[in-house]
Design a protein that fits this description.
The protein is an alpha+beta fold. It contains four helices and six strands. The chain is elongated. The two termini are 31 Å apart.
């Protein structure tokens, strides 16, 4: 995701930002990115609950015959890079939730028994489409708040 950032009162904010230490600058970047990525991740989690409420607490069968409940919301992740230059938000590739996002084709066992297909819900893709512009606009406000918070500390 790339965004053009234009700030109102740009000169004052840039001066304040330059007066911060490099550690504080990195903290500003990290906090703004965290808040932005959180908005997309929370939208994806609410979309997941709306598309299929049963997916929030998915019951899986364990080898001994008992059932275990898996919180699918944990498979939606967000992380800010160490350099604080960007971040990632998405669906974990190893989890079962990726099947519900992208869908699967029809499957058969080795004995030829049909196991069906999963239709993709596209809950994450919808969350990205709905919130991308809003997050880009909010970055300006969040950046200004964070710089002022650090500067007047």
């Amino acid at each position: 995701m790339s965004a053009k950032i234009t700030l109102t009162g740009q000169k004052e904010l840039l001066e304040r930002f330059k007066s911060l230490s490099s550690r504080q600058m990195k903290a500003v970047h990290r906090n703004v990115l965290n808040r932005s990525l959180n908005k997309i991740a929370s939208a994806a989690k609410s979309n997941l609950g709306r598309t299929n409420p049963r997916l929030r607490n998915w019951k899986i069968r364990i080898k001994d015959g008992s059932y275990s409940t898996v919180d699918m919301n944990k498979d939606i992740f967000r992380s800010v890079w160490k350099s604080a230059e960007g971040g990632t938000v998405g669906v974990r590739p190893r989890g079962a939730l990726k099947w519900f996002e992208t869908g699967t084709t029809g499957r058969k066992t080795k004995k030829g028994h049909y196991r069906g297909a999963i239709t993709g819900l596209r809950f994450f893709k919808q969350a990205m489409a709905d919130n991308a512009k809003k997050v880009e606009q909010d970055i300006n406000n969040e950046l200004a708040k964070e710089i002022n918070k650090r500067f007047y500390k």
